[in-house]
Amino acid sequence: MSTPSPQRARSAAAKQQRERAILDAARSLGAERSVREVTLTDIAAAVGMHKSAMLRYFETREQIFLALTAEGWEDWSAELRERLSEAADGDSEAVAAVVAQTLVARPFFCDLLAQAPLNLERNVSLDSVYEFKTVVLSEVTSLATELCRMLAINERSAIDVIATATSMAGALLQMAAPGTRLRTLYESRPELAHALVDVEPQLTRILAALLTGLRAPAAPTRPSAPTGVETGQA
Fold first, then answer.
1. C-alpha distances out from residue 38 to 41, 43, 51, 64, 213, Å
2. CA-CA distance, 72 to 112, in Å (whole number)?
3. Which of 2, 77, 86, 182 could form a disulfide with 177 if both were Cys (CB 3.0 to 4.6 A apart)?
4. Residues 137-193: tens digit of each pLDDT
């Protein structure tokens, strides 16, 4: 006896429930493997739908993961702001450590951060990109405000810190390749020890160095040398 196909969601609430089920399935699959390995067919099978039926809710697999990236930004931003509120103002190293810790604790989000600019944003409609960027920029603004308050840096510098943290977290996680054959190779061959990436301490060092540089007092400007006319020289 064949299993009946899921009925199409008719009400707004039912549609939201179906969308949530799709997002949760994609999150689970992406956390188990990697984002780039999960197909639309995989997600459809996980929620008991035909792939064509999925397109009533999301235009592409990339839109599904882009929506999860936006949720990841909201979740990370909320925890980071809470953690930063407990840190001492002006402590660059503590801020760097908290930023790194909260990112490394979210490997799926870090994977999404790496994939978003490479392919997720490139395979959805411009409306979807706009919606995603609006969420991200709102969270960046909230985080930048907190960093400016704590560290007495300007908004541009705070945004640079956030951009560096999120881009490096995504890149370092890919380089670390946890749970893969590549990681096993790096660990088994002493001559490849340089390829072993320990994400949290490395990210912490990078951010601490960046914050130290941004907060360093500017070197005094040297006065211009006087001209011959001003000093009465010929």
1. 8, 7, 13, 11, 40
2. 9
3. 182
4. 999 999 999 999 999 999 999 999 999 999 999 999 988 887 778 878 887 888 887
Q: Give helix 61-85 / helix 126-151 axis angle, nearest 10°.
A: 10
Tell me the two tokens of residue 187: 């660990």
Describe the crossing of helices 199-215 and 126-151 by its angle, rounded to 10 degrees.
60
Q: For 36, which DSSP code?
A: G
pTM confidence score: 0.84
DSSP conformational letter for 58: -
Task: Tell me 196's DSSP state.
Answer: -
Angstrom distance (rounded) from CA 167 to CA 164: 5
Are 226 and 110 in contact by the 8 Å Cβ rule? The answer is no
Name residue 183's amino acid: R
Closest by CA position to 146, among listed 98, 218, 204 = 98
What is the b/e burial string over 171-185, where b = at least 16 CB atoms within 10 angstroms of the residue's CB? bbbbebbeeeeeeee
Give every CB contact of residue 70 below 8 A, 6+ residues apart in sequence: 131, 132, 135, 136
Among 110, 81, 103, CA closest to 171: 110
Tell me how far apart the terminal alpha carbons of the chain are, to the nearest angstrom: 106
Measure the CA–CA gap between 149 and 138, rounded to whole angstroms. 17
Q: Report residue 79: phi and psi, to 5°.
A: -70, -40
Measured in residues, the chain has a length of 234
- The mean per-residue pLDDT over the stretch 199-208 comes to 96
